[in-house]
Amino acid sequence: MSGKIGSYITLTKPKVVILLQITGILAVISHDLLEGGGLTKDTAGTIIVVLIGGFLTAGGANSINMWYDRDIDPLMTRTSGRPI
Question: What pTM was estimated for this model as a whole?
């Protein structure tokens, strides 16, 4: 991705965040199915909260990690292209 917005998106590591979101959503669905109540409107609301909270938490943690490692990232081939 190029440009300023692309750099911000890259900073959050969206591929990693998506994998975390999948596990969060499956945990919510599994809980509601095993609890016996089935999937309800509350499940959809919980999934939305998990998606927003998970993205902000994981994306923020990834951003902090890139900032913290900004001095050593240029030295490694794999991390040399990070936005910070």
Answer: 0.78
